[in-house]
Write a structure and sequence with these properties.
The chain is α/β, with parallel strands linked by helices. It is 30% helix and 30% strand. The protein has a single domain, classed as P-loop containing nucleotide triphosphate hydrolases (Rossmann fold).
């Protein structure tokens, strides 16, 4: 579970103060599939980055089973990201000169396991996502949907407690977006906690347990309560 309390993130540009997040209070329950929608600049990605420990708040608290993120050292945050959090981005963020297998293996680099085990687990993750025959291909030779599945395999290979997805279908066509949405639905069906940021309010709609909308750094609507 993630407990977010009075979370603020501000930036100063000259004399102007920009409130990227303006007093967010939110609980993400274990096993939930939470969708966050909103226009560009509403604070969605900023919130996700703070949940992942990739950025620090100006004030407020994010509490996890491992403690308060704001009180963790850089090494503790690295362990939190390595062991607890999987992340998927719109831009895939694959290393272009590495194969699909090697990209997935990178999700385990901070785990104290042998390279042979890393490769075995990476191969299993690719196989589970239907990419066993693409393991030795580099990103440039893969379709957009295949690249996103490689990125998803890299996030899942560490067996995270929570998956954070930032516009995971933003660069994909409608058909491929539907395929990726089904993968997320299946993962949630297997018990994974998911927080997905998206412009698309219809994405994975049947599997969402709760939806909220952000506007100008605030949660403006939590009426999309949950399907049971």
């Amino acid at each position: 579970m993630l407990q977010i309390s009075d979370l603020y993130k501000t930036y100063q540009t000259g004399e102007q103060i920009i409130r990227a997040l303006d007093g967010i209070n939110l609980t993400v329950n274990d096993g939930e599939f939470l969708r966050i929608v909103g226009t560009s600049g509403s604070g969605k990605s900023t919130l996700l980055n703070l949940m992942a420990g990739l950025d620090t708040p100006s004030s407020g608290r994010i509490s996890t089973a491992q403690g308060l993120l704001s009180e963790m050292s850089s090494s503790e945050l690295a362990r939190y990201r390595a062991n607890e959090v999987g992340m998927v981005f719109q831009s895939f963020n694959l290393v272009p000169y590495r194969t699909a297998l090697q990209n997935v293996e990178m999700g385990l680099l901070f785990h104290n396991i042998s390279r042979a085990e890393r490769l075995d687990r990476a191969a299993d993750a690719l196989s589970q996502l239907g990419l066993a025959d693409r393991a030795n291909h580099r990103p440039a030779t893969l379709s957009g949907g295949e690249q996103q599945r490689v990125a998803l395999a890299r996030a899942l290979v560490k067996k995270p407690k929570i998956l954070l997805a930032d516009e995971p279908t933003g660069n994909l066509d409608e058909t491929t977006s539907g395929e990726i949405a089904k993968l997320f639905a299946d993962l949630h069906g297997d018990g994974l906690t998911i927080v997905m940021v998206t412009h698309d309010s219809t994405l994975a709609a049947a599997s969402i347990t709760r939806a909220l909308r952000m506007s100008y750094g605030k949660i403006s609507d939590q009426s999309g309560e949950v399907k049971r």
